[in-house]
Amino acid sequence: AQEPGTPLSDQEYHKFFQFLRITIQARTACQLRELYGCKNSLVQRLDEYENHGVIPSGPICSELPENPSFHNFCTFSLYRCIMKQYFLKV
Questions:
Q1: Rounded CA separation 40/32 (Å)
Q2: What domain of life does the UniProt record list for this protein's source (predicted)?
Q3: Is 89 inside a domain boundary?
């Protein structure tokens, strides 16, 4: 264990900045979704990429007790963006 107040190791910095890059990219995708909507071709390409080439049709089931299902993938993605749970899966 590192001493409190000491800088991260090279490996720890790599993991730290890798997570930040991914989070920033997720936020950017959310901003695109919020600005242009789910019918935008770039947003649809991102959705396809996230789902191995196919945007799932609804309803989308989740393990969230407060929201067990979503009407479609767009609604699910908007929920993730609003709640800032970028890596939440169904």
A1: 9
A2: Eukaryota
A3: no
Q: Which domain holds residue 22?
A: 10-83
Q: Is residue 3 assigned to a domain? A: no
Distance CA 1, CA 25 (A): 30
How many C-beta atoms lie closer than 10 Å to residue 20's C-beta? 10
Segment 41-65 shows an average pLDDT of: 86
Split into its structural domains, the chain has a count of 1
* pLDDT for 3 beyond 80: no
Question: Which SS3 state, helix, strand or coil, does residue 14 take?
Answer: helix
Q: What token pair was written down for 85? A: 């749970």
Q: Which residues pair with 61 in a beta bridge?
A: 69
User: Model pTM?
Assistant: 0.72
What are the tokens at 41? 């071709």
Question: Would you place residue 32 in the very low, low, confident or very high pLDDT band (cuts 50, 70, 90)?
Answer: very high
Phi, psi of 7 (to 5 degrees): -70, 160
φ and ψ at residue 71, rounded to 5 degrees:
-60, -40
